[in-house]
Design a protein that fits this description.
The protein is α+β, with helices and mostly antiparallel strands and 60 residues long. It has one domain. Helix content is 30%, strand content 13%. It is built from 1 helix and 2 strands. The protein has a two-stranded parallel sheet. The longest helix has 18 residues. The radius of gyration is 14 Å and the shape is flat.
């Protein structure tokens, strides 16, 4: 089967997506266990590549 890497959004932390529309982290965390369990059930190996610490640079 396949080895699949995945990331849970832009970083593990306070980024939540587009303000006023959708909390990206909440949605990702809701579907993460379901998707991972299904892929592993079918024999795939999953590797979590979510960054643990990223510095955001705001450009003007």
């Amino acid at each position: 089967m396949a080895i699949i890497s995945y990331g849970l959004g832009h970083k593990a932390g306070d980024y939540v997506g587009t303000s006023g529309y959708l909390n990206e982290q909440k949605v990702i965390r809701e579907y993460e266990p379901v998707c991972i369990a299904e892929l592993e059930h079918h024999g795939h190996t999953l590797i979590n590549c979510t960054p643990s610490n990223i510095i955001t640079i705001h450009m003007k």
